[in-house]
Design a protein that fits this description.
Blueprint (H helix, E strand, L loop, with lengths): L13 E3 L2 E3 L3 E3 L14 H12 L4 E8 L11 E2 L6 H12 L5 E6 L15 E2 L13 E2 L2 H20 L4 E6 L4 H6 L14 H4 L1 H14 L4 E7 L10 H14 L4 E5 L23 H9 L4 E3 L6 H9 L5 E3 L2 H5 L3 H6 L17 H5 L29 E5 L3 H12 L3 E6 L7 H5 L10 H13 L2 E4 L5 H7 L3 E4 L3 E2 L16 E3 H6 L7 E6 L4 H12 L3 E5 L15 H11 L2 E3 L2 E8 L5 E7 L4 E5 L3 E5 L3 E2 L2 H8 L1 H4 L2 E4 L9 H14 L1
Helix pairs in contact: 1-2, 3-6, 7-8, 13-15, 13-22, 18-19
């Protein structure tokens, strides 16, 4: 079976009030950091158009602020400014060119914000500081509530003038409306506080005002949080009651769903690969059992089969797929054409989408170098004449180099010395709950095959091999290697029982007993190996000079779950320690010296094994040889990824894409 026939519901049209959407795949609202000066940009246009061209049934834009007091992050769209209209019209024209409806999400973040940008007090239902921003907000009075309601209505009307087909009210994970709905943040004693009916009052006022402003021919939806996962917060029972009350008013056309609070339990909103797909389906399922309105379900759907099953099982009527369409804008079109094997699966690694946003950078994707650069990167142009390109190494950088070069019309061969592709990603994907990281290699291999790239395994490249192959271009993607630290004896015979994390993952070393893991990288390397060893029965302690173990796990929303797993597995975490020396000790154990760098106090550990997660060094020997002989051999030499400088996967992918474009 091919095409849309293999899906029972995913490609059936559906009416959301006055708007008919062609399929059930929704590109749900999410932040992008593409705005400039509070206005939409050409990048917004190109970004949303790419997903419309790729077959999304409905696009819902990122939030648009309805009031000057709402400026929680720098690159927000200020919809209260009339100047946004030009950008709106350019976005909607581009999306409508592909017969795709597009809705605007409008919002006021309330107390989940800061006065840093606005220089105005933060407005909220009660003076309860948000745990992330820690700023005590101003409790809004009745006049200010009315002002906010007017702001919603005015912005909704402006969005309609800008060509949007519908309006979505963000009342879920970061919203002043969520703040009013939640007992955790609404401590009022007037008619806007206390009972659920009172806490819902502002929501109903906004819905009525917006419907009056946009009229009957524009769709209107509300996004609700089903469980905030915070003390005294909204639970599914309250969310179901709110949804039922909204339906009874007869003013909205659909209900979207969410889980968590953006500044308190964000790790469940944008869940990493440690959380299973479909984890939040209990929320739309419960709401759909109460209302007849169409309901949108969300929760890390990796492929269209999972999305179709959620609808078939009655959990929801539509499925929000965000990161899947960030990774592959043609997610929907490939599913419709029966090309699910060709879909670039999202890794849920959160490194370049969620992670970049948290660092105040524009949204990208670890495996799609076009994401975030749709407006500046041209479609590959086939080169004439084609060149013979030899890529050394089949890790992410090498495979992306091959993909990019082949997409530009070159004849590409990849040689890999091992018996399988992936480089260090191959081993990183073997640790607990990290298997999906291997999808980056799976996705690249699919692209290589479609482009006619030849891959040879068990081939060690040297000058002789390269000279015999006579390529026009060589791209060196030989990765990185372990770099022994200064505190480890230079003489390998004098070293204690020690190894690096990659060797553990490859099975070249099998630590046992008491294991001390040294974390200088601050990411998944140390924590993943610590879990692996703990699962094997080792007694594990991680030490790091940083304030927290795995400090960058916070960027990808993996920190909270790591803490829970570490506690459950008995993994001890010791911070602010520098290793001063490591040498063989008594009784076959190791003596490891540590210094508490805040005071200079010293201490020792005596583990059975020492495992190191340290900055590696570039494996650039072959590149340097080739570069020295470049003129003699008559070839053009490039290098990518860790062979340039050891970094993370996204850098190797960007390097590879860049090299392929310039050949």
């Amino acid at each position: 079976m091919s095409g849309a026939r293999q899906f029972r519901y995913l490609f059936e049209p559906l009416k959301l009030g006055p708007v008919t959407i062609p399929n059930r795949i929704v590109f749900s609202a999410h932040l992008t950091n593409y705005a400039q000066g509070g206005l939409p940009t050409d990048q917004h246009v190109a970004y949303y158009e790419a997903r419309a061209r790729g077959g999304a049934g409905l696009i819902i834009t990122e939030e648009h602020s309805v009031h000057p007091t709402d400026w929680p992050y720098e690159k927000m769209i200020h919809a209260f400014k009339p100047e946004v209209l030009d950008g709106y019209r350019r976005i909607t024209r581009a999306v409508h060119a592909h017969s795709t409806p597009i809705f605007a999400q409008i919002n006021h973040n309330g107390g989940q914000a800061s006065s840093m940008y606005s220089r105005l007090p933060v407005w909220a239902p009660s003076p309860v500081p948000d745990p992330m921003f820690r700023e005590v907000p101003k409790e809004v009075d009745h006049a200010e509530i009315a002002e906010i309601v007017r702001g919603y209505a005015e912005v909704a009307a402006r969005c309609v003038e800008g060509g949007f087909d519908g309006i979505e009210l963000q009342c879920s994970h970061s919203s002043i409306v969520r703040g009013f709905l939640s007992p955790a943040t609404n401590k009022r004693t007037d008619r806007y506080g206390g009972s659920l009916e009172n806490r819902s009052r502002m929501l109903h006022e906004i819905v009525a005002a917006v419907r009056d402003a946009i009229g009957p021919d524009i769709a209107l939806g509300v996004r609700l949080c089903g469980d905030e996962l915070i003390d005294e917060g909204t639970r599914i029972g309250d969310a179901v009651e709110v949804a039922g009350a909204l339906e009874r008013r007869g003013l909205i056309d659909y209900i979207n769903t969410s889980i968590g609070v953006a500044t308190a339990s964000l790790f469940v909103i944008e869940a990493s690969m440690h959380i299973p797909p479909g984890y939040a389906l209990f929320i739309p399922s419960a709401i759909r059992a109460r209302v007849d309105l169409p309901v949108v379900g969300v929760g890390r759907f990796k492929d269209p089969l999972q999305a179709d099953r959620a609808i078939a099982d009655g959990h929801c009527d539509l499925v929000g797929v965000v990161r899947g369409q960030i990774a592959d804008p043609e997610f929907a079109a490939k599913a419709r054409a029966g090309m699910t094997e060709q879909t670039r699966l999202c890794l849920s690694c959160n490194q370049e989408c969620v992670g970049r946003m948290g660092l105040n950078r524009w949204l990208g994707c670890i495996e799609n170098p076009m994401t975030g650069r749709e407006s500046v990167l041209p479609t590959p142009v086939v080169r004439d004449p084609a060149r013979d390109v030899l890529v050394i190494g089949a890790g992410p950088g090498g495979l992306q180099s091959a993909i990019s070069a082949a997409a530009h019309g070159h004849r590409v061969t990849v040689v890999e010395r091992s018996d399988a592709p992936g480089g260090n990603v191959r081993w990183a994907a073997t640790v607990p709950n990290r298997a999906e990281l291997g999808d980056v290699i799976r996705n690249q291999l699919v692209e290589c095959e479609s482009l006619g790239v030849k891959i040879e395994y068990g081939v060690s490249a040297d000058l002789s091999l390269i000279s015999s192959r006579r390529p026009d271009v060589v791209v060196v993607a030989t990765g990185s290697e372990f770099n022994p630290p200064y505190w480890l004896p230079a003489d390998q015979e004098a070293r204690p029982r020690s190894t690096d994390v990659v060797s553990v993952l490859r099975g070249l070393a099998e630590p046992s007993g008491d294991v001390l893991v040294v974390d200088l990288l601050g990411f998944h390397e140390a924590t993943s190996v610590a879990e692996l060893l703990a699962d094997r029965g080792c007694n594990v302690e991680i030490v790091t000079p940083a304030m927290v173990v795995g400090q960058d796990l916070g960027i990808t929303l993996d920190m909270e779950n790591w803490w829970m797993r570490a506690e459950a597995k008995g993994i001890r975490q010791t911070t602010d320690r520098i290793v001063t020396h490591a040498a063989p000790g008594d009784d076959g154990r190791i003596e490891v010296g540590l210094m508490y760098h805040l005071t200079g106090a010293t201490e020792t550990r005596n583990p059975d094994w020492l495992v190191m997660s340290l900055p590696p060094r570039a494996a650039d020997g072959l590149y340097l040889e080739l570069k020295a002989a470049e003129g003699q051999l008559g070839i053009e030499v490039h290098r990518v990824g860790d062979a340039v400088a050891p970094r993370r996967i996204h850098a190797a992918v960007v390097d590879g894409d860049r090299v392929g474009r310039v050949l």
